[in-house]
Amino acid sequence: MPEHRLDLAPAVTIPPHLVGQVQSKLAYVDELIASADVAESGDRITLALHAAAGARAAEIEEKVQRVVREMAQGSIAPKVEILEDHLARPTSYSADPLDELLARGEVYEESTGIFTFGPLMSRLIAYFESRFLELAAHFDAQPYRFPTLMSAKFLDRVDYFRAFPHSLTFATHLREDLDIINQFAETAKYEGKGLNSPAEFFSQVEAMLSPAVCYHLYFSLADHPLPNGQLVATAVGTCFRYESNNLTSLERLWNFTMREVIFVGSKDFVLEHREQSRQFMHRIFEELGLAYQVETANDPFFVGEFRKQAAFQNAFQLKYEIRARLPFKESTLAIGSYNYHQDFFGRHLGITLPDGKPIHTGCTAFGLERVAHAFLAQHGLDPARWPAAVREALS
Amino acid sequence: MDSIDTTLFAKVRPVLAAALKVDAAEITPALQFGDLPQWDSMGHMEVMVSLETELGIPITPETITGLTSVEAICQHLAGNGHA
């Protein structure tokens, strides 16, 4: 339980476009921070600190100010473009659906950010995924199946550790050592917030839990020319992004599912398919009765990389987010995105077009649990009040 | 490609070479974003920061997307009173 609060004046006033980004990064500053709040005015930070933080308050404040300076000093204001605005589409529900889902036993929180879903959510997720597969079929996308583990070697090749170190989830195992395995078997217990076993019991990290789906396709194409020079693929996968004390509600899960349609080819091929995706999904979202908008966005790069990478991504409009309305909190939630990576993966992984130039890539991705959560937040748990397309499909 | 002002190119060349951590000889008048492995997305933002610090070019979405070649950088400087 948090013991006390620490109010800070940030070293640099945090501009409005960075308030949410800085707030989410403060979770990673220190394990003694239970929660952080940045005032909308950007001139006040309030931290809730765990017990024992008192003696380290000055150290924690110094680290917070470092984050503020690195992200806000000389920040480059993004140019936000709204490509579609359907936020005013009528909805019929205004409560947080999680409360009712928990009460009905439709959702069970196994651990922080780890949820089990019952029949209602499972059927909804399967239905929404079937609608996203219409997009894959429209492009005659080739089906792929990818592992849940992802090679650390390949993630290193695409600079993932520099861009998103904070959200990685590591896979390890006991070292091949009879004494260690026996000792683990005899002594391992879950204590406090985790296993009591010492770090030296565990192997070096060779693999991560996948943070994204499409990377697996690019890795499988590495170091070769792309046959035919173009490819459209689709896959569903479980993804893992650790979000510390930002793991709240159904909005941010440590473990979630993404259905992606992936485009590989020339710049024109990828950009045309990304735009066709957006236009195709416009009709689907209308049938689902979803209130949403599509706007330019950036990925949640870590502190040191944020200023430059986010500015680059925004300026070149590499990411369009689909943000659904959450009526119960008068805000929006990203449920998917239309992405263009330029030739980043082609260059880093040595994947070339027939003319020898690096391939370009892009993907359309949907977070299935978030789509279901946003739908229930807008239309509630009573199927009688759902838009006809959903009601008839699930009746 | 229009001819590049040699005085401006002489100003730009060392700035880009330092930002991209390459030899100045690799910075040619025809060089564009993507021509060198170092001039990728991160390299481009290093270029932008150096252009801001050394030559006073502000970093905006327009300059980030517009100044993607030596020629464009020189033209921008020429249009903003640099000689």
Fold and architecture overview:
- The complex is a heterodimer of chains A (395) and B (83).
- Chain A has 395 residues and is an alpha+beta fold.
- Chain A has 3 domains: 2-72, Alpha-Beta Plaits (2-Layer Sandwich), CATH 3.30.70; 82-165 and 211-394, Bira Bifunctional Protein, Domain 2 (BirA Bifunctional Protein, domain 2); 171-201, no CATH class.
- Chain A is 35% helix and 25% strand.
- Chain A has 13 helices and 18 strands.
- Chain A has helices spanning 19-26, 57-72, 97-104, 119-138, 152-157, 160-163, 178-187, 214-220, 267-287, 303-315, 344-349, 368-379, 388-394; strands spanning 2-8, 33-38, 45-50, 82-85, 107-111, 114-117, 142-143, 149-151, 170-171, 190-191, 194-195, 207-209, 231-240, 255-265, 292-296, 319-326, 331-340, 360-367.
- Chain A has an 8-stranded mixed sheet with strand order 4-15-16-17-18-14-13-7.
- The longest helix of chain A has 21 residues, at 267-287.
- Chain A is globular.
- With 83 residues, chain B is mainly α.
- Chain B has a single domain, classed as Non-ribosomal Peptide Synthetase Peptidyl Carrier Protein, Chain A.
- Chain B is built from 4 helices and no strands.
- The mean pLDDT of chain B is 91.
- The chains are: A alpha+beta (395), B mainly alpha (83).
Features:
heterodimer; A: 395 residues; alpha+beta; Alpha-Beta Plaits; BirA Bifunctional Protein, domain 2; eight-stranded mixed sheet; three-stranded antiparallel sheet; 18 strands; 35% helix; 25% strand; globular; B: 83 residues; mainly alpha; Non-ribosomal Peptide Synthetase Peptidyl Carrier Protein, Chain A; 4 helices; 0% strand
